[in-house]
Amino acid sequence: MNSLPVAEKIKGFNKLPLEAQKIFTGFLKNFYAAFEFPQDHEVAKVAIAKEGRGKHTTQFIKATTKNGEWFRVLSPHTWY
């Protein structure tokens, strides 16, 4: 089995605010544990993303896998 990268090695991790780094680190552990073959869902990059306009803009942690699938990370245990 391929070795999966730790959170600190994911592209964009060092640009996240400290609180987002903590959330992402917990998410990554739980995300990989959710799959029988986690290497098929390897996260390649992470960033703070924005959506909406003006005063209705919200920010979230966006985790993108190597195959281009991405997830909105709300907490170490909640993503979609």
Quickly give the structural class. alpha+beta
Strand composition percent? 25-35%
Order of helices and strands: HEEEE
Physical arrangement of strands within the biggest beta sheet: 1-2-3-4
Shape: globular
Radius of gyration, taken over Cα atoms and rounded to an integer in Å:
13 Å
End-to-end separation in angstroms reads 26 Å
Structural write-up:
The chain starts with 17 loop residues before the first helix and ends with a strand. The radius of gyration is 13 Å and the shape is globular. The model has no long low-confidence stretch (mean pLDDT 95). It has 80 residues and is α+β, with helices and mostly antiparallel strands. Strands 1-2-3-4 form a 4-stranded antiparallel sheet, covered by helices on one side. Helices cover 20% and strands 31% of the residues.
